[in-house]
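Backbone-to-sequence.
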């Protein structure tokens, strides 16, 4: 397997930052302002929040063997979203096998004040951190801090948040006057916090508008209710990254569910049962 974009993070000569106990390994911090690697395009990431925790090791190994290039770690704080879900200890536990397989750890922080947690996830071995625009007082500064910690940075928006707000925040000026650019905009296609929700009408149209208005090198990720009938349309609209939980982990065989989603990316768009609402 080709080397993962994350490998650059081990090449810096400065002193390593120890990871939390639990197996994250060491991760050398990059020079200030270094550009982190990107999440792989056309990647389907399975969120561990939807996995069977008693079987997580076996399910993760199965997905890595099937070729997944990113593993999605959802983090809930009980405030921004109701559930308290996962955290840096889980990221540290899965990072070694994920990185050994050449894949990436993609963390989605559904938490208030996300900037308080950046260093913990960097130390745990995360490659990419996405935070919610609605939860950050200074999105530009938060993006900058994630980049300075050696990770890719993403901004997530709830279904109620406007595309205008996402586009404005994706290239933001911090309170200190610096300009920062998000690597990814995550368009939620369900309400954040719970697995098993249905794909919301209008998400595909929002993706298309984001693609028209974001820089060409900005990636769009879609998270929530994504199934085989959605992938081709979302890809045609401009999405390059897909988070699918129930379609993978609630399948009889997660590796087969993952393979079915990959195959769906090559299918022509199929008409959905509901119309797409304008953004």
């Amino acid at each position: 397997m080709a080397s993962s974009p994350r490998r650059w993070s081990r090449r810096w000569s400065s002193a390593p930052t120890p990871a939390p106990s639990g197996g994250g390994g060491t991760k050398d911090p990059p020079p200030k302002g270094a550009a982190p690697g990107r999440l792989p395009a056309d990647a389907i990431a399975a969120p561990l929040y939807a996995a069977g925790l008693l079987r997580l090791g076996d399910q993760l190994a199965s997905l890595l063997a099937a070729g997944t290039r990113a593993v999605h770690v959802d983090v809930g704080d009980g405030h921004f979203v109701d559930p308290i879900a996962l955290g840096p200890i889980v990221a540290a536990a899965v990072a070694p096998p994920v990185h050994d397989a050449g894949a990436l750890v993609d963390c989605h922080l559904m938490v208030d004040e996300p900037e308080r947690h950046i260093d913990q996830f960097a130390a745990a071995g995360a490659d990419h951190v996405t935070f919610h625009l609605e939860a950050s007082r200074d999105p530009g500064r938060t993006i900058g801090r994630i980049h300075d910690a050696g990770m890719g940075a993403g901004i997530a928006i709830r279904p109620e948040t406007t595309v205008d707000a996402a586009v404005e925040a994706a290239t933001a000026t911090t309170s200190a006057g610096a300009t920062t650019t998000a690597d990814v905009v995550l368009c939620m296609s369900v309400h954040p916090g719970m697995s098993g929700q249905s794909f919301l009408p209008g998400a595909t149209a929002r993706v298309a508008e984001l693609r028209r208005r974001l820089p060409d090198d900005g990636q769009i990720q879609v998270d929530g209710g994504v199934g085989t009938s959605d992938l081709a349309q979302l890809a045609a609209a401009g999405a390059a990254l897909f988070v699918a939980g129930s379609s993978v982990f609630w399948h009889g065989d997660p590796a087969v569910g993952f393979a079915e989603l990959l195959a769906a990316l090559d299918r022509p768009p199929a008409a959905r049962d509901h119309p797409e609402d304008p953004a």
